[in-house]
Design brief:
alpha+beta, five-stranded mixed β-sheet, 4 helices, 24% strand
């Protein structure tokens, strides 16, 4: 399998089971999550990109950008199935997300990288935000 066998494109919808499988591969899906939320998650994203096998049409990677479409954007949920890594699919997904943001006039694009993945993002134009600390809300549910 090579990159000629994969199509990377913007989507407004996708098979929920395939997206759930990708979230599971990324370690981000919990059993209590509802797959019915995938459709609004995709349509509510500023941009949602899927890498799919041309032959089967099945998703093998994804990523999304969330934004108001005017000022800032955040790239998140980038995952490629292990079997399809080292084929530059992650780079293609992030590049398409960046292009969509830039085409909309958004120049402030950020992400929170998992430990050990910084070297993937630096060649794509990202840099560590010195003096900033990512935080997550953990108050009352």
């Amino acid at each position: 399998m090579n990159t000629d066998d994969i199509c990377v494109s913007l989507v407004r919808s996708w098979n929920a089971e395939e997206i759930v499988a990708l979230y599971r591969a990324g370690g981000w899906w919990k059993d209590e999550y509802d797959p019915a939320e995938i459709s609004p998650l995709i349509s509510g994203s500023f941009a949602f990109v899927v890498a799919a096998e041309k032959k089967s049409g099945r998703a093998v990677g994804m990523g999304r950008a969330i934004s108001d479409g005017v000022s800032d954007a955040y790239i998140q949920d980038l995952v490629v199935f292990p079997r399809y890594r080292r084929m530059d699919l992650g780079t293609a997904i992030v590049s398409l997300l960046i292009q969509q943001c830039r085409d909309a006039g958004i120049s402030w694009i950020a992400l929170v990288a998992e430990p050990g993945s910084e070297n993937f993002y630096v060649p794509l134009g990202f840099a560590r935000m010195e003096g900033y600390i990512p935080l997550i809300y953990q108050g009352d549910p």
